[in-house]
Amino acid sequence: MKNKLVDFVKEWIADNLILLVLMVAMFAGMQYLYYQESQALGKAAQQVEVLKLKISLTMEQQK
Predict the structure, then answer these.
(1) Could you tell me which of 7, 3, 4 has the C-alpha nearest to residue 15?
(2) Which pTM value belongs to this model?
């Protein structure tokens, strides 16, 4: 009886450890992708500001 219980607990822990490792890996991957996306959005916003300034200067020169 005790041996079966120990085996059941070991199997349950092993199954849940695998799920926990997978969850941690997915979380880390999602955080990495979110970081990459936010960096790209920041760079795109900077490029938009530069383009606005260039357009503004071009419009002033044409006047």
Answers:
(1) 7
(2) 0.57
